[in-house]
Amino acid sequence: MKKGKRTLAIFCSSFTAIAAASIAFLTKSRLKESVPVAGYSHSQLVKKSARTIVEFEPELFQNGIIKATCSAIVYDISNLQFAQTSYLTCDAYMSALTITIPSNVNVVLESQSFLGNCAALTGRYMDTDIPQLYVKARACLSNISIRCADDSL
Questions:
Q1: 94 versus 16: which is more confidently predicted?
Q2: Span 25-78, pLDDT tens digits
Q3: Phi and psi (nearest 5°) for 77?
């Protein structure tokens, strides 16, 4: 019985290693060394890091992109002013990404996830008189969460 459990454990760990390597290989071409800045008011690329990014400049958030691989990121954009309609694109591969927004912004989340999770934990329900942030998120072996600045983490 012990031999069967050990064989199963070796098989599962081998399968996980092969899956992680194939995902990293397949996403290598999608995650470039530099994030395109044309057309974006804010852009970030983070690789193999654990840090907090607080945005202050430029003050108006219109269109942003953040890409993270093998990282744990807190992306704080709660100090910025938002246009009436803003867009944010998030790609996370083997990462944990937390996006902090001001409490007066409504989030509309469109997400795709593979062995991961994407959630907007803001508590806002489509108020039309406040700025709208449309988030397009892709998570692969990752967790993406969007929170208000006044909520405790």
A1: 94
A2: 555 555 444 455 556 777 777 777 788 888 877 788 888 888 988 889 899 988
A3: -115, 25
- 125-149 tens-digit pLDDT: 666 678 888 999 999 888 999 888 8
What pLDDT, on the 0 to 100 scale, is given for residue 48? 79
Q: Given its phi and psi angles, is residue 70 left (phi above 0), alpha (psi -120 to 50 degrees) or beta?
A: left
DSSP of 41-78, one letter per residue? SEEEEEES-EEEEE--SSSEEEEEEEEEES-EEEEE-T
* Bond prior to 36 in cis (omega within 30° of 0): no
What whole-number distance in Å separates Cα of residue 62 and Cα of residue 41? 6
CB 142 within 8 A of CB 92: yes
Nearest to 60 by CA among 38, 82, 86, 37: 82
Q: What angle do CA 96, 102, 106 make, to 5 degrees?
A: 90
H-helix or E-strand containing 16?
helix 2-28
